[in-house]
Amino acid sequence: MSQYTVIGLRVERAGPLALLQDAGRFGVRRLGVTQGGPADLHGWAWANRLAGNPWGTAALEITFGGLTLVAERDLTLAVAGADLGATLEGSPLPLWETVMVREGQRLTFGSPRHGLRAYLAVAGGFHAEPVLGSVSCVVREGLGGFDGRGSKLADGDRLAVRADAGRRVAKQEVPEGERPDYAEPATLALLPGAQVADFSGDSLFAAFNRPWRVDDRADRMGVRLTGPRLTCRIGSLISEGIGLGAVQVPPDGQPIALLNDRQTIGGYPRLGALTPLAASRLAQCLPGQALRLRPTTPERSLAALRRFRDAVAG
After folding, report:
1. Which of 163, 187, 202, 271 meets the CB 3.0–4.6 Å disulfide criterion with 247?
2. Distance CA 38, CA 174 (A)
3. If pLDDT is split at 50, 70 and 90, which confidence band does 2 have?
4. Which helix (H) or strand (E) holds 53?
């Protein structure tokens, strides 16, 4: 810990999964190392914006809740993303807006009400030593996180923040139009991939006109979807690079949408790839939740991403 950092939060109760995430680990997939980073880019970015942080600042990704933190000093922070029933000293914590927390106060995350992952950002950001250029935590690979070894938070851990983390930041709120309704069935934009023409016509019609449900086999690597069985004349491929949001279809015909901690190569045919914002929305879907896939174009995807980046930048 440098002279510019101090302990900001102590973990009183860790919950099932809380990880430190910056924008991700890039330029290393040739080494077989995945990108990590926030599963929900949208919620992570808005939490940092509210805390007055630039793009890329490390924030805490809290999955399923069950986390209790104690402030070791005064802090300015923000929580965006899922509603996990967060409270500050027993009172509901405002989401999607800037909040001041005093030394000794307890911040508790309960269980999912709407959405799956909440993002906690503090003014100035959390501090950790980068590994391969990033502090993003990938547990499977033992990389990043608050300790540099890919560890999820455990009881008694302490999180370092910049010494000025208690500085006052102009109070902000995220516009209502930028706050997703996680209770509503999601419609996910998908860029058709190189193998899309190898799927049967019936399968393509079903893929984009029938509902899907999120299977309980879901994590930061990927999310399995259950619904109509998709058939493809290609059984397998020579393994090739896998990008964020790639939708692979294994022999059982049930798609798997790959997220931040995915493997770097794969050999199943792909229906296409979810756009970055669609992958973010999927990361907030609870098991059993319904969704639909909608084909889109690179131009529309890029325009949507630019609008989002402009909105976050203010």
Report:
1. 271
2. 19
3. low
4. none
* Model pLDDT for residues 134-147, shown as the tens digit of each residue: 999 999 999 999 99
User: Residue 4: which of 101, 147, 127 has the closest Cα?
Assistant: 127
- The two structure tokens encoding residue 146: 């608050």
132 burial type by CB count under 10 A (0-12 exposed, 13-18 middle, 19+ buried):
middle
Taking the C-alpha atoms of residue 153 and residue 11, their distance in angstroms, rounded to an integer, is: 7
The whole domain housing 293 covers: 186-313
Taking 90 as the threshold, does the pLDDT of residue 4 lie above it?
no
Bridge-based pairing of strands 290-295 and 186-192 is parallel
Same domain, 280 and 149: no
The first and second tokens of residue 227, run together, are 């619904």
Of 178, 194, 214, the domain-final residue: 178
Say if residue 289 is in the same domain as residue 224. yes
Say whether both 46 and 19 belong to one domain: yes
- Rounded Cα–Cα distance for residues 243 and 239 (Å): 13
Q: Are residues 199 and 230 in the same domain?
A: yes
Last residue of a domain, one of 154, 178, 202: 178
> What is the residue-averaged pLDDT of the chain?
95
Q: Which residue has the tokens 């174009």?
A: 297
Burial (Cβ within 10 Å: 0-12, 13-18, ≥19) of residue 58? buried
